[in-house]
Amino acid sequence: MKKVSKVLLGLVLMLVAISVNAQAAEGEFFVGKWNVIVEGTPQGDSNMEVRVEKQDGKIVCLMQSDAGGEFKPVERLEITDTELTAYWTAGGYNVYLFLEKVEDNKVEGSLMDMFDATGERVVEE
Predict the structure, then answer these.
(1) Which among 106, 66, 60, 68 is positioned nearest to 86, based on CA atoms?
(2) Which of 57, 66, 80, 108 shows a CA-CA span of 20 to 30 A to 41?
């Protein structure tokens, strides 16, 4: 009986360790800098720089408000291994950007489900 309980305890601990590692890796694909182009907005095509970073063990998303401007954290972030949705307020409107993994360094999606968005990872040399 002791042997069975030790085996069960070992299995439970192994499953907990696997679960913790899986959660830590959630969203890892998106960590880095991304150049995102949103096409067809009323102001024309819009270039955005998006940074996804780990801060205090948590993944956060920062958006650049203006070209060369300050990066600000988004208000809400939903992220998985293959999808990212960032929510923030701009010009008094609640907006969101959805991106989905297409290739190792490419994403596609939309801004507000109205404007097509494509993105490419900035590869540091």
Answers:
(1) 60
(2) 80
Number of helices followed by number of strands (H, E) in the chain: 1, 9
- Tokens representing 78 are 């939903």
Q: How far apart are CA 111 and CA 96, in angstroms?
A: 6
Cα–Cα distance measured from residue 89 to residue 75, given in angstroms and rounded to the nearest whole number: 8
The CATH number that applies at residue 100 is: 2.40.128.120
- The answer to whether residue 7 is domain-embedded is no
- Could you tell me if 62 and 53 are in contact, meaning their C-beta atoms sit under 8 angstroms apart? yes
Domain carrying residue 64: 27-121
With H, G, I as helix, E, B as strand and everything else as coil, classify residue 16: helix
Q: State pTM to two decimals.
A: 0.76
Whether 117 maps to a domain, the answer reads yes
pLDDT tens string for the chain (125 positions)? 556 444 444 443 343 333 333 444 688 999 999 999 999 999 899 999 999 999 998 999 999 866 678 899 999 999 999 999 999 998 899 999 999 999 999 999 999 999 999 999 999 87
How far apart CA 49 and CA 100 sit, in angstroms, is 16
